[in-house]
Amino acid sequence: MNNLVWLRSDLRIYDNPALFNAMSKGPTVAVYCLTNEQWDKHGLSQIKRRLIVDHLFELEEQLAKLNVPLIVIDCALFLNVPQSLAGLCRDLNITNMYYNHEYEVNEKSCSDSVVNQLAQLNIECFGYHDQCIVAPGSILNGSRECYKVFSAYAKNWQQNVSALARPLYYKPEPQAELALTSDISCLKNYLIDVDIQTKDQWPIGEDEAHDRLNEFIEQNVSDYHNSRDFPDLDATSHLSVYLALGVITTRQCLQAMVSHSQQDVELLFEVSGDGARCWLNELVWREFYRHILVAFPKVCKGKPFKDLTDNLPWKADNQDFQAWCEGRTGVPIVDAAMRQLNTTGWMHNRLRMVVAMFLTKHLQIDWRLGEAYFYGKLADADLASNNGGWQWSASTGVDAVPYFRIFNPYRQAERFDPKGSFVRKYVKELASIQGKAIHQPSKALAMQHGYPTPIVDLKIAAEHTKALFKNLNVSPAVQGIND
């Protein structure tokens, strides 16, 4: 035995740099370390935990076709991983270990500890960037510093992606059979029941992920810029769960667009239709937030990107927060979105911004509570994207929405759910109301249908929030908007 590949957020056999390079260098065995107590500490959603386990069962079958045994170890916490992997390496006479980088503070620390532990056994470790098309730290401004404005980062990224993009890795060829069999027996202890039908919502496996990718590009991407903001339409890619699990990569998404458009990557952003450019821009946003995570690890530690905003008098957990969590704020589009999250483990991206702004800008509740609640519910829980999105909405983050721009949820609902179809689906008590009244029912109408009245006056709350930010001496560049 020569090589060990340590799997984490990379549950796939296609475009897996660590797996490909390990198998190209000799006999390889794969390992995954379960860390349930660490997941508890991080507040990881139950549905994502179950999806990880389901994908590990599937991955074991796919690795078996390559004659690569999968060993699953129950480590409980990250701090136990280095010793567990060292023991496995000794037992299997491992000489080289291959892994893909993770960027969060605790995960990176775990990687460093593993590398140091294995170095004591004279085991060489090889790390690869797989989560990004362009490795974090490769795109820098003129001062050789981390970009803090997305538009400038995106422009540089687009101009240099052809030269800086990591390779795309094919599925490795099967190796000769080893005198070792897989051991995934401890997975049975992680077969938790969740209320959501995960297999129906997100079918398991790489093939399913690629089917979704190809179907989206062929059928929906051309109109993505027009339809992506309407939550009652099935107009988005629904790939976020597979990306968060590492079942598919952004590099594969980019390549799929290159193949579909039959354009070189450097021309893709110039000649593609508006829908394709809009969707590709979402991939760059994903990379940007990882770029920030690496350059400013404080955002992993509950700190705002803009230090000054930590002085805001955010409210703590209270009855309003519970009403928001449970979807009973009296604002139909907010409640519909939260009920979608609670019942499906997913929320439409436009609505993620609407409910985040409502929590932070209208209820003045600490964005960190909202971030944690999302992380504990989302099947696509991803620290970089989740934190980036919440800090954007709260105006505490990098290149965030200006504090004076506050979404009015009623206007958002009328604009993006004009017929009230989405609200009717999730706020059943209002389903019989016709016209615009469904988005802002009168007190009498709400009471008639057993629906709560709004827990906050939006106009007063928005003005109060603007005043709080102004007191931080944050000077707006333009006049305030309440759209």
Structural commentary:
- By secondary structure, the protein is mostly helical.
- The protein folds into three domains: 127 residues, HUPs (Rossmann fold, 3-Layer(aba) Sandwich); 128 residues, Alpha Horseshoe (Serine Threonine Protein Phosphatase 5, Tetratricopeptide repeat), CATH 1.25.40; 164 residues, DNA Cyclobutane Dipyrimidine Photolyase, subunit A, domain 3 (Orthogonal Bundle), CATH 1.10.579.
- It has 22 helices and five strands.
- The protein has a five-stranded parallel β-sheet with strand order 3-2-1-4-5, sandwiched between helices.
- Helix 15 crosses helix 16 and helix 17 packs antiparallel against helix 18.
- The longest helix has 22 residues.
- The C terminus is likely disordered.
- Keywords: Chromophore, FAD, Flavoprotein, Lyase.
- It is an enzyme of class 4 (lyase).
- Belongs to the DNA photolyase class-1 family.
- Its cofactor is (6R)-5,10-methylene-5,6,7,8-tetrahydrofolate; FAD.
Helices and strands, in N-to-C order? EHEHHEHEHEHHHHHHHHHHHHHHHHH
* Total count of domains: 3
Sequence of strands across the biggest β-sheet: 3-2-1-4-5
Assigned CATH superfamily of the largest domain: DNA Cyclobutane Dipyrimidine Photolyase, subunit A, domain 3
- How far is the N terminus from the C terminus? 62 Å
CATH class of the largest domain: Mainly Alpha
CATH architecture grouping of the largest domain? Orthogonal Bundle
Shape: globular
Total strands: 5
Largest sheet: 5 strands, parallel
Structural class: mainly alpha
Write the CATH fold name of the largest domain: DNA Cyclobutane Dipyrimidine Photolyase, subunit A, domain 3
Percentage of residues in DSSP E strands: 5-15%
Number of helices: 22
Poorly predicted runs of 5 or more residues: 474-483
**How much is the radius of gyration in Å?**
23 Å
Site (Electron transfer via tryptophanyl radical): 314, 367, 390
Keywords: Chromophore, FAD, Flavoprotein, Lyase
Enzyme class: lyase
Domain Photolyase/cryptochrome alpha/beta: 1-133
